[in-house]
Here is the input.
Amino acid sequence: MDAREKRTRIIGWIVFVIALTMMGIGIARGEASVVLTKATSICTQCIGIG
Amino acid sequence: MDEKKKMTPKKQSVIRTWFQAAWFVLTNSYIRGYTKGMIFAGNTKVICFPGLNCYSCPGALAACPMGALQAVMGNSSYRVSLYVFGFLGAIGALFGRLVCGWMCPFGLFQDLLHKIPITKKIKNLPGHKFLKYLRYVILVIFPLLLVSIVKDLTGTSDPWFCEWICPSGMLLGGIPLVTLNAGLREAAAGRFIWKLAVLIVISLMSIKVYRPFCKYLCPLGAIYGFFNPISSYRLVIDKEKCVSCGMCQKACGMDIKTFENPNSMDCIRCGSCIASCPKGAISSTWGQKINKVKNRCFVDEDEGTLNLTELPKEISKKATFFGAIAIISGICGVCATYLFALRSAFISKLTIEIYKDYLPTYFILDVLLVVAAALLLIVGIYAIAKKEDAKALLTLPEKSISIVIVLAIGYLIAFVGCIIDSRTYGQIMIPTTYDAAFLLTSVVAVPFSIALKNSILGKENKKLWRLLSVLYVLSLLGTALAFWLLTVLPQ
Here is the structure.
């Protein structure tokens, strides 16, 4: 594996870890419950009603 | 190893279409929604789909990432959604725009429309060179700027992209719900007609142009495209084999010069370039890893030839034995899921009707585990019956084992989902004997599957293997005992 490929892999995994951390912080802030509330009721704007 | 190409572009396209269809069916399997004109309200909707799948689709079991992003950013309590951006980042870092090519229902819809043979097909609209940046403009304006800036008196905002542009919401949610629900039908007015018109225009364009929404309008594809150069799944060009013939660009629906820019932000990872390259110069990072494992385990290092003499018998015996174990595990898992839900419903005095809503996803996961295990068992039986057909056996056990490993993880996730469900409804927090047995079965299934894979591929550690086998059998027996106790003892 050349240096460039290795660097790309490392960057990819760093981004993945940062993304998981962001998800964890978002869940701790209560964002997941906002998503759940919105997703479990009919989105009238999405279906062109309101 | 024989380097003869087996995959043709047409075969690749068929496989991808069927995978997309299976993914859509799996993730939109709330059948009651289609019959009653309602949507699923289970806890799995806290998770986002990877693709553009409206959460108002009657069958949808998870949330739309763009809708979720706008819901959080449009909420008065938040300026930015770390949860959804984190999710998009995690998916992007793993797959990039592979999601667009393999897991997006609206992508599937456009692919199917493009197959209709009623007009000359073109890849791009006139002005493609500039139009392809339009999706970034839409990303910045609709789901980000407008949602952040235009707020009402309560500090909340509408989902601007979903409200004015998203055709997936109209296709998967608007049309089915308005058709099935009389109340919604009466409320449909000007905006419904606007969105319907957007859907019709994109649909008509899709017949002639390849994936126009993905190329020019999709903000989700725009986000995932940023990750293409660094995602775990990437394309790799073998410079020694590549002759720059341009066959990859010719096969590419997104019109990308793959031999020059294999990880373009426009690439939806359909795999057509890999299948069409006459020199086999294009491969994927994941494909390379799989080939590396195959070559290491099945090539005689001294002679450099394929070692087929003793492997098939061992593979067949082990495949048969552990296929049976996996089937037992799958059956236990199915029973466990239903009994767990029924037990929770009984304790909380809620009706079983409500809990049946939560069962489809977990049930499907368990059924898939049983199917994968059955396939493994069939492979084993086939190998014993047809020992001379060793070459065909070389790939099937590996694929089956990979499926079992993935589904063992899914099995564990299903168990976690049951725990989340029970806690949401205020169930007893203290683990019971049943919970412990179920958890042990699920946890042991993962290393058990890995040990199974290693043993068949020639890396057997006998002591570990025996230990895991004993643990797995004990956990299955413990689960069976817990079932019996659950049914005979008072709650």
Remarks:
- The first helix of chain A runs from residue 3 to 28.
